[in-house]
């Protein structure tokens, strides 16, 4: 048995209670301890002369007690004056025992560690760690002292001792933890050896730079971060390979359906749409499942592309499914597809969590017996009780809202027919290239880099709440000219209830201010049918103004709407604002977006809103968003598996991402057997999750 893979209970003194605490740190086996890296370090390798100490420094000092006394200030404390020939320092204890009072008699020699601060008597250390020295002083530490992230009830020193034990085992049996990056590759990529890295990070030599170590910029942490990114990449590639080993239905057909569809459209496709459709068509004509991401800015016309792809599947005697992240968007797609497909004699079904009872049973039956050729829905589509007769194409809209595993789950739905469906993933959030390489490395990418003709870019203004009356007047004016407007209420996303309340209040308030207008309200707490009715009325032009929460963020399409007010825009991410703003500027009239903030704005918020004013380029906005907020928030990566990185940090290590691909290629070419163990080392049970689906 490999000692490092043994559970932590194999270490001395580890019982049930400790196992639970370690589990909270995601430490289960001995090797996990080795990859549990310090947050920061203390330097206890040298004794600092008291005279050179500065406030804020953590240091070991050694000296002779001059005097000690209990002093009364605001709080009673024991004050110990210590000198070493270079200066004088006070140790201060707010909690102390009579024994301690005894210890600090004049002449006693003390070694103490702690953070110096400016106190009432000059430099002081509160509650230092200390020891009395007898004739011969023990040596100081021979390496920097690691401080680990820990959990309630697990003391730093206990954790440190466990990790030392683990390091001891590694020393005793180095082969138990192989370096899966072979010498040749390490040399080529300039990477230090694994054991050396772990050793350096847990027990850095005295001359190592603690700040460089703690910030993750030390070559040793960089090597581990790179290895972790590599493991994630390998895992995504593996998913891709596994999927591509399955057979997919060959779907060359659908030409005549597509032609009929295109003739009934009121516009012709853009060059970019045609190019992307060619790429999709080539994929669908092969017996390997397509895995393709279509990236196109808000309003670039992804839905038509999805419809054309769906027609290939339907023309090839298969079903197509399209999954959207919100019910409102799923409903809108449902209606769009019905309007497009029913004239072609294609039955379209709709499935979401809210569909209940007999209607649900009927819909599921139509999906199972194949009457429904096109199925639109929310994630309800991939629940266990939904069976397709023959799913040929799974389309996922607004991919950034779904996790990798959710997306892959749709694949199972094809298996009843013995075939794996093709997958088409669509996103309007342009993913910065570095992230795309990491989150979507298993997908081929097509880009719709052209907007349909006749669009005028949305003009954005940033306006303080004091000018609300002007904004209201602006709505009155726009609506008097026959145009329509959105008023979007935002609040912290966690509180949907509050957000709905705010929308209701705003709805009432605007109703009073603008009695001549027909004003609708839509928010997340309304029934699906109510929401749909309001959206319909707005679409049909029966409503002038729509007050909404961010439920309208994705995909809602009303070309006549040319004015959007967003309240408290500083609360939203830039990409989200961009999505919202994309609801206007869909027709040929000039459109406006008013970002109505309640001041004062922080410098940071000002900068962010400034970006919105300056550009309508979704790609630039996404890059800015990444820069200002970090990848976790931009992609909502908590669910995509990206945020579970142990060591790598996608922002800090962005430059490493460029090296991941060549490293993965080189490793797979020369040492393919290393791929599995690397994935297991870094992804553990997550790997199973990617792999299962
Ligand atoms: P998104 O890419 O944001 O999902 P949509 O598919 O909702 O965009 O398309 C936005 C609007 O543009 C829709 O009203 C759609 O009918 C229209 N549209 C799509 N393609 C074209 C085109 N080639 N020419 C004109 N209008 C188009
Ligand atoms: Mg869309």
Automatic annotation (TrEMBL):
Keyword Zinc in annotation: no
CDD domains reported in the protein's UniProt record: DEXHc_RecG (cd17992), RecG_wedge_OBF (cd04488)
GO MF annotations, alphabetized: 3'-5' DNA helicase activity; ATP binding; ATP hydrolysis activity; DNA binding
Enzyme Commission identifier(s): 5.6.2.4
Database matches in InterPro entries: ATP-dep_DNA_helicase_RecG, DEAD/DEAH_box_helicase_dom, Helicase_ATP-bd, Helicase_C-like, NA-bd_OB-fold, P-loop_NTPase, RecG/Mfd, RecG_dom3_C
Uppermost EC category: isomerase
Assigned keywords, A-Z: ATP-binding, DNA damage, DNA recombination, DNA repair, DNA-binding, Helicase, Hydrolase, Isomerase, Nucleotide-binding
Boundaries of every Helicase ATP-binding domain copy: 283-448
Function: Plays a critical role in recombination and DNA repair. Helps process Holliday junction intermediates to mature products by catalyzing branch migration. Has replication fork regression activity, unwinds stalled or blocked replication forks to make a HJ that can be resolved. Has a DNA unwinding activity characteristic of a DNA helicase with 3'-5' polarity.
Family: Belongs to the helicase family. RecG subfamily.
NCBIfam families reported in the protein's UniProt record: PRK10917.1-1, PRK10917.1-3, PRK10917.1-4, PRK10917.2-2, recG
The name this protein goes by in its record: ATP-dependent DNA helicase RecG
Originating gene: recG_2
